[in-house]
Amino acid sequence: MSDPDCIFCQIVAGALPAHRVHEDERTLAFMDIAPGTPGHLLVIPKAHARDVLEIGEGDLGAVVLSAQRMARRVSERLGADGVNLINSCGAAGWQTVFHLHFHVIPRYAGDPLRLPWVPEPGEPTEIAALAERLR
């Protein structure tokens, strides 16, 4: 299944260029054209799925395993000191391309990339109440 208007589906089909670094039956990994750090790449399912809420379990599992492989690869081959695996779901969650994808972002000591969220302690009662709602 593909969406002809989806840029990532067009990359899968070969209609748009991409620097492919890994491909298997269900997934494709390619370099991000707006990298946060050197080596930043994306891992996507070949079959179109809008986001992590829509994708089937089999394709999601395949994407996560490919993302793990790519995280290992950037660590081993690029000498990354760490890796961020990031998925954004929905516009409010910073998703801009509506085809599920995981960012594999190599992190290097002293690199300038800063995520917009800075963790701060939450209110314990609110955390407990939200946990109850999610059980």
Short précis:
With 135 residues, this protein is of the alpha+beta class.
List the helices and strands and how they pair.
Elements: H1 7-13, E1 20-23, E2 27-31, E3 41-45, H2 57-78, E4 82-86, E5 102-107, H3 124-134
Antiparallel strand pairs: 1-2, 2-3, 3-5, 4-5
Structure, described:
- The chain has 135 residues and is α+β, with helices and mostly antiparallel strands.
- The protein has one domain (7-134): HIT family, subunit A.
- It is built from 3 helices and 5 strands; from the N terminus they run αβββαββα.
- The protein has helices at residues 7-13, 57-78, 124-134; strands at 20-23, 27-31, 41-45, 82-86, 102-107.
- The chain has a 5-stranded antiparallel β-sheet with strand order 1-2-3-5-4, with helices on one face.
- β1 (20-23) and β2 form a beta hairpin.
- It is globular.
- The N and C termini lie far apart (34 Å).
- The model has no long low-confidence stretch (mean pLDDT 94).
Count of runs of 4 or more consecutive helical residues:
3
Q: How do the SSEs run, as a string of H and E? A: HEEEHEEH
DSSP helix fraction: 25-40%
Terminal Cα span: 34 Å
Q: How would a textbook summarize the main sheet?
A: 5 strands, antiparallel
CATH class: Alpha Beta
Q: Identify the strand order in the major beta sheet.
A: 1-2-3-5-4
Query: In the CATH classification, which architecture applies?
Result: 2-Layer Sandwich
Query: Can you tell me the CATH superfamily?
Result: HIT-like
Q: In the residues, how many domains can be counted?
A: 1
CATH topology: HIT family, subunit A
Report the strand count: 5
User: Which regions have little confidence, pLDDT < 50, spanning 5+ residues?
Assistant: none
Give the CA-based shape.
Answer: globular
Strand content: 15-25%
Mean pLDDT: 94
